[in-house]
Design a protein that fits this description.
Blueprint: E1 2-9, E2 28-32, E3 35-38, E4 46-49, E5 57-59, H1 67-71, E6 76-84, E7 90-97, H2 100-110, E8 114-115, E9 119-120, E10 123-124, E11 126-137
Parallel strand pairs: 2-11
Antiparallel strand pairs: 1-11, 2-3, 3-4, 5-8, 6-7, 6-11, 9-10
Length: about 140
């Protein structure tokens, strides 16, 4: 039996600049230690709130464990970063921590995920977020 666990964690990275593949017409936000921050290019992100609710996944797609990796009983955690858009879909997904044989499966699944809109002042915002996909052979 193969067990795959997917979790989302708040972004605890200091982020500067833009996210590859993401249009930057809207402000970008992140969840970090101490609350919600607006990402600014100079690296001095602006804290907006001390308590925020983490985004909730509304559509989940399970990763498909690659056959070769399963045969080799390869396990590991793939850490992804992306942006939850104002429509709830993910953009700009990149691998932060790689397990080369499992990265594509993690990315393919995450591209199908959707989240409830993240709201600030009654309007949806783009939120930078970090996701982990745990692959474990039981």
């Amino acid at each position: 039996m193969t067990k795959i666990t997917v979790t989302a964690i708040g972004c605890l990275l200091v982020w500067t600049g833009s996210v590859a593949g993401v249009q930057d017409t809207e402000p970008l936000y992140r969840v970090g230690r101490g609350g919600l921050y607006r990402v600014v290019d100079d690296g001095d992100d602006v804290r907006l709130a001390s308590r925020v609710a983490l985004p909730k996944k509304s559509v989940h797609v399970d990763p498909v464990y690659p056959a070769d990796a399963r045969r080799q009983r390869l396990e590991g955690v793939v850490v992804l970063q992306g942006v939850i858009g104002t429509d709830g879909t993910l953009d700009g997904l990149t691998v932060l921590r790689s397990v080369p044989e499992l990265d594509d499966a993690a990315l393919a699944a995450a591209r199908g995920w959707e989240y409830d809109l993240v709201m600030l002042d009654d309007r949806p915002i783009r939120l930078q977020f970090v996701f982990t996909v745990n692959f474990k052979v039981d």
